Amino acid sequence: MSEVLTGPVEVVGTGLLGTSVGLALARAGVEVLLTDVSSEHVRTASGLGAGRPRTAEDRPQLVVVAVPPDLLGAVISDALEATAGTDAVVTDVGSVKTRPLVELTGHPEVDRYVGGHPMAGSERSGPLAASAALFDGRPWAISPHTDARPDAVALVTALAERCGAVPVVLEPGEHDRAVARISHVPHLMAALVAGRLADAPGDHLALSGQGVRDVTRVAGGDPTLYGQIVSANAGAVLDLLAEVRARLEEVIGALAVGDREVLEALLAEGVAGTRAIPGKHGGPVRPTRTVFVSVPDHPGELARLFADAGEAGVNIEDVRIDHDPGRPVGLVELVVAETSADHLLGSLESRGWVTHR
Amino acid sequence: MSEVLTGPVEVVGTGLLGTSVGLALARAGVEVLLTDVSSEHVRTASGLGAGRPRTAEDRPQLVVVAVPPDLLGAVISDALEATAGTDAVVTDVGSVKTRPLVELTGHPEVDRYVGGHPMAGSERSGPLAASAALFDGRPWAISPHTDARPDAVALVTALAERCGAVPVVLEPGEHDRAVARISHVPHLMAALVAGRLADAPGDHLALSGQGVRDVTRVAGGDPTLYGQIVSANAGAVLDLLAEVRARLEEVIGALAVGDREVLEALLAEGVAGTRAIPGKHGGPVRPTRTVFVSVPDHPGELARLFADAGEAGVNIEDVRIDHDPGRPVGLVELVVAETSADHLLGSLESRGWVTHR
């Protein structure tokens, strides 16, 4: 077994993630073999440049299983069978890491399997939504079980790096508790909030601002897929939902009796949580300031704004374009380092932009 | 009483919202008078160009009360007293509209008061966070009570328009139920999700993606202010929290017994909710597609990207710059009309950008 990724790499399942892995590896010059129960998906992914259909003669160095959560254990097991007696490594890109291991218990060659999970996705699915850039700069969890061969771990780490991602090693149980907290529970709560909007009167929804859009965005994902994901991680998700339920009871109790102290403590806990999320580039969160600029909503105006901001020598950390319910003018929020805001404002104003210091 | 906003307008309370109203009216050429218990805040707001300190001789046409929720009823009442026997109209910019009215019950000149609520804000507070553009294109709820004079309603509507906002008329009780649904409950749920991150291990948080950042962003707001806001709207908020609690129990029950059908139905309700939020410009949500581009993280590169996108004649609907935990390259997501995506991709690729179709 080699720790160097030389290929070929077989991708089993040519949906959003599998096709994106194929595209990213092809971009990196690695030969990719494609397998899917849908020969049409294979043709589509192949046509996009994600690799070529696998033939019986192919001998992959690495098999990447990219199938729906419910099928992971069985397809990983099949991949170990298909490569039995070889040095081929098997990995997956599934959202949950302990459940497939349970299904693989006792498999004689499980030491050739190392779980993986790229933290990237989209509200869209299927090969046509794929992108070679999907993993660029994103965390990619590597979750070796206790029997995994070290050279297999190294090869899967190399896969993450060749796809442009940043490997983060987490033991399977730790991984599952982590994603319950930073992905599965946020998704479920977003769905509960969004669910309350489904039958709301239109004039109530007309007041919607960026806040409710942000809170509910992830709830737009495919219910079947997310149903499989959270079910596969039910234990860790239930532990956290019990905490959420207890806090929700506290909020309801505090509101009912007007206990401002309890309410503020819960809100302050939320503020602390938002600050705990790592900043851009994994470093501490730098103080930023938002600069508002009114921009006509037609092609070229944003380009002119960014050209002018670029001339000012200011790095834009983040951008938000506000949804404007009634007028063909967008409000653009440029997030910049606090120390750069005044300079940027002065510079934009001198070029005629409508802004305010 | 005139329905035409000629000024002067007195702004009582020169925090984020009050100072922004002053700046927006000053931009529109309306004379603004400033009052605050903090003379330093008045000096700051005045120095920013939001108006001049009010003197005893001034006779405002309209008084805008922009004080914290707990003080609204008392300060609105004071403003009616101070203008007793005149035609001056009093409004406010508070987040809740029925509670102040309860405190004003029986006031002999309550017909000169019409509540308002601009749907704009910031995680920051104070006059230095203010902006003349804060209300541009945002909904501004106008909530006349049954005794409000029609010409007072017209004048407050004119205020919203002169500040650049889009007036949306909603009866006070309707308004409070609407903001409970699209603002207060989403805020509380975001705080509950964010609260679970406060003590999470660092290597768990290292997996954080855009999803959890979006779900929790609003939870970064001032706990004291939001404690006042949700307390003032406790009735409507509690009604919805009871619904959320019931659905949370369903999720927990379904996960515990592996009932996939119930889980998927709840997730599907969330999808329907995200689709119910009005799209940009208040119209139906148009199908969009996200285009990924890798961009070096230094000044000028975003400008070059937007200039190239502008040359392609494609209108950018939204932008996201992904936080990149390990590398000095950002992944920029450009959201464009589905019908424009292929043209934009081809155009950017021909200019050397790393992207994918």
Question: Biggest sheet of chain A, in brief?
Answer: 5 strands, parallel
Fraction of helical residues of chain A: 40-55%
In round numbers, the mean pLDDT of chain A is: 89
Tally of contiguous helical segments of chain A: 13
Biggest interface, chains and residues, is: A-B, 152 and 152 residues
Alpha-beta classification of chain A = alpha/beta
Number of domains of chain A: 3
Spell out the helices and strands of chain A N to C: EHEHEEHEHEEHEHHHHHHEHEEHE
> From the coordinates shown, what is the CATH architecture of the largest domain in chain A?
3-Layer(aba) Sandwich
Distance between the termini of chain A: 61 Å
Q: What is the alpha-carbon Rg of chain A in Å?
A: 24 Å
**CATH topology grouping of the largest domain in chain A:** Rossmann fold
Spatial strand arrangement across the major sheet of chain A? 3-2-1-4-5
The level-1 CATH class of the largest domain in chain A: Alpha Beta
User: What is the count of β-strands of chain A?
Assistant: 12
